[in-house]
Amino acid sequence: MSRFFHGGGSDSESSSSEEEELYSDREAKEEEESSSEDESSEEESSSEAGSDDEEGGKSKGASWFFKDAEESEESEDEERVTVVKSAKDKRSEEVEGTVKLIENAQKIGDWAVISTEFDKLNRQVAKIVQSGTTPKVYIKAVADLEDYANETAAKQKSSNKKMNASNAKGFNTVKQRIKKNNKDYATEIDKYRKDKGDYMESDDELEVITVKKLKPKTLEIAPTGDDEGFEMVGRGGRTLQYTPESILKHLRVIIESRGKKNTDRLEQIKIMEKLLEVATTPYQTIRVLLSLISTRFDLTSSSTSSYMTPEQWKLAGQELTTLISALEEHPEYVITEGAEEWEDDEKQPQLADGEILKVPGSIVSFVERLDDELTRSLQHIDPHTAEYIERLSDEQILYNNIVRALLYVEVLNKNEKLEARQDSVNRVLMRRLEHVYFKPAQVVNILEENTWKALPENLDSSITPRNKSTDVAELVQTLSNYLFQYSDGIIRARAMLCLVYFFALHDKYHRARDLMLMSHLSENISNFDVSTQILFNRTLVQIGLCAFRAGLIYEAQNTLSEVCGSGRQKELLAQGIIMQRYSSVSPEQERLERQRQLPFHMHINLELLECIYLTSSMFLEVPLMAQTSSAPEMKRRVISKTFRRMLDYNERQVFTGPPENTRDGVIMSAKFLAAGDWKKASTTLNSIKIWDLMAQPDKVKEMLAEQIQEEGLRTYLFTYAPFYDSLSISTLATMFELTPKKITAIVSRMISHEELGAALDQVNDAVVFRKGVELSRLQSQIVTLADKSMSLLEANEKTLEQRTQGMANAFQRDHGHSGRGRGQGRGGQRGGGRGGIGGQQGGRRPGGQQFGGGALGGAIKA
Where are the compositionally biased (Acidic residues) regions (predicted)? Predict the structure, then answer.
């Protein structure tokens, strides 16, 4: 098509504007390049066609007569001056259009439109502010809008006229936002209100750019091997410049975008890392680190995983250490909760000598979040892999931050110019105690030594001094005593449980038992949160294990019966979830249950726990079964239903082979003990490999052998007492390989507890048995009726306790009954026994005292 049919100057103008848009608007770059290439190809084809016509001597047509005119027009196009609007000017026009809409809505009092356009105006200005200064049109609009809102509020108060619903909603929205918005532009607004005319006259004008029409050229970019010479660009292709003066502005934009959808937090983290590099003052460093650490924690909620990656976690830990170090070097800046924000982003605060600036934030919250994220990470990693061990080594970094945060909040708590922050000290101390209480002393010693080596020499703690951190028992006692004195509620209860757990773990049974009884936590533990109840269960189990290691079989069985007898050890100790077939657990409840699970390194070995519980039950149940075989009135008394059920199941088997697991080993040992073969029982029980997991396996096996000898003697006496008139002590010593003195002590204890109707003949060195009185038919029926009545009473009590959620205990105490609360197993009532006929009263307690009730009360006389 000939250029004759094109408009005179429209083609050059459109092409020049297209070329300008090519460099001003990146989004239309590809489209404009293709159009310019098409146009150039058309021009080249037409010129080639013209040259062919000249050479061929053919008719040139109408275009031949306008050739000179076309050449002159092209030369004029090259020198033509065009006004071009950049992307910034376009955005300024958008702002002016929105301002006009707001002014028009003000004339008719339409606050719904004002509210909508005000939000739109702020979004438009935010794009301009990122690359330049705030438009003066915007300053004028927000200043006038604030004045108009104040006038409207005054009119409303004087006239008492109500707006319609949409207008009232828009007015309230603008009224709330305009004051907060104008704080950021207070300086410019004051200048505008002082002299509105001069302020607006100095407004920027549109740039006039002279553009010459150039032939399109191909841009060649030489490939480079690195990124040297390249800069980060923002929206619109503008280079982002980070200077110390613009740090607070960039932080303001990042903070305002926090929580919004489609926010690239990784990009924000990169920006703040750049800001941290250019920060020159302590205040800038502190502000950037606070925002940077918070944004790293926000990555968890935005990603699909429910825990921080190890890389982000370590970076957050390093930045927290840097933050605390900066606060230690500059004590005039204090991070505290509830402080007012510094609103002026144009200038930084200037402090006088001795003045303290409070910066909003919380070091304690950062430490707690860092701790929680490490726990979540350990929950999701397979504990049987090397990755878990590697991740667990990061606990040293966390513990260092906890101790350093503790030193910082201690200083703040002592500062008289600040409000006392005792709660912050308690929270950090509790976190430190929770990382120590379940570990052996040797591990805690290494942890403490590495921590104090990593901290500066000039730092020390007034609660736990550096030179006294070598004694782990003293350290745990000091932390707990401080929390007992200065805290209350859940923190105090958890501190008590941690101290009891630590004592029980280190074989201090009597101290752990006494503290547990004095705390009275078993009476009101149901009022605490789930995590504290889990800690209570763990402490109770650890006390039972400690009692077993000390050879206190009765106390161990009685303490463990509440947890192990329920068959829900995994759930009660937060070491697993039992998925029932017909359970009505919602996905949300299941998710919360999984979040409560403890990391693997905090677990108590459930197989060892079951073995200890069954072994303790065997030592009590086998002699009891032998005793009830000749005493009908005690036939229904059961100490451990779990053990009895397993024993009955094993006896119903047609063929029983050698024991294949821990449970089979204990049951097989019980059968040998009941048959009177204590040697086979001892060999079978000691052959269980689970005992090697205990701290001192040889000592434990020696204790088990002694217990089997004693219980074998008791079983023999209960079984064959009706068939003997007297029995020589020397014969018993030979049979059970015990000293005569030991046998005399055992028999004397059985007689004093009225478990055995006999007397000691010290002259003849023999045991003389007394025959019990035969029960009549009426007496036997009375005993049976009493047993059934007691069974019915127990069932009613259990039902009442379930329906009233623990109120049955208070009811029973008020009416004189021996109630059972949490931590007080059924062994409490069974241990006391029921009054029998024929001299059989109550259960036997090895310690020489009658058990009075409660899971731990077996150690004291009721």
Answer: 30-55, 70-79
> 323 and 178 in one domain?
no
Q: Are 370 and 427 contained in the same domain? A: yes
The pairing of strands 357-360 and 333-336 is parallel
Q: Please indicate, yes or no, whether residues 733 and 800 belong to a single structural domain of this protein.
A: yes
Question: What is the share, in percent, of the chain residues with pLDDT greater than 90?
Answer: 27
Residue 539 in any domain: the answer is no
Q: What are 113-150's pLDDT values in tens digits? A: 898 888 888 888 887 776 567 788 888 888 888 888 88
Residue 841: strand, helix, or coil: strand
Distance CA 270, CA 352 (A): 34
In which domain, by residue range, is 320 found? Answer: 264-344+352-457
In this predicted model, what pLDDT tens digit does every residue of 241-279 receive, in sequence order? Answer: 677 777 888 888 888 887 777 778 888 888 888 888 888
For the chain, the farthest-separated pair of C-alpha atoms sits apart, in whole angstroms, at 156
- How far apart are the C-alpha atoms of 276 and 244, rounded to whole Å? 9
Question: In degrees, to the nearest 5, what angle opens at C-alpha 301 toward C-alphas 296 and 306?
Answer: 100
- Indicate whether 321 belongs to any domain: yes
Per-residue model confidence as pLDDT tens digits over 723-777: 888 888 888 888 888 888 999 999 998 888 888 888 888 888 888 888 766 667 7
Q: Are 368 and 429 in contact (CB under 8 A)?
A: no
Q: Which residue pairs, CB below 8 angstroms and at least 24 apart, start in 663-670? A: 663/610, 663/611, 663/614, 666/611, 666/614, 666/615, 666/618, 667/614, 669/618, 669/708, 670/618, 670/621, 670/622, 670/643
654 touches 662 (CB < 8 A): no
The C-alpha angle with vertex 646 and arms to 643 and 652, in degrees rounded to 5, equals: 140
Q: How far apart are CA 118 and CA 115, in angstroms?
A: 5
Helix (H) / strand (E) element for 386: namely helix 386-392
pLDDT at 46 over 50: no
Same domain, 18 and 114: no
Are residues 464 and 475 in contact, defined by beta-carbon separation less than 8 angstroms?
yes
Residue-wise pLDDT tens digits, 509-557? 999 999 999 999 988 898 899 999 999 999 999 999 999 999 999 999 9
- pLDDT tens column, 447-489: 999 999 999 888 888 898 887 767 899 999 999 999 999 988 8
Number of domains in the chain: 5
Count of C-beta atoms within a 10 Å radius of residue 539: 26
For 304-333, give the secondary structure using H, E and C: CCCCCCHHHHHHHHHHHHHHHHHHHHCCCE
Residues paired with residue 769 on neighbouring β-strands, in sequence order: 758
- C-alpha span between 10 and 32 (Å, rounded): 17
Instruction: Give exposure, 634-673, as e/b (b: 16+ Cβ within 10 Å).
Output: beebebbebbeebbeeeeeeeeeeebeebbbbbbbbbbbb
- Please name which of 813, 825, 816, 811 lies closest in space to residue 857, comparing C-alpha atoms: 825
Of residues 255, 275, 362, 266, the one with CA closest to residue 311: 266
Same domain, 812 and 687: no
Quote the distance between the C-alpha of residue 334 and its chain's center.
26
Q: Are residues 763 and 854 in the same domain?
A: yes
Q: Which residue has the higher pLDDT, 581 or 538?
A: 538
Q: Which tokens in the block code for residue 574?
A: 């937060």
Say whether pTM exceeds 0.70. Answer: no
| Residue 276 to residue 271: CA distance in whole angstroms | 9
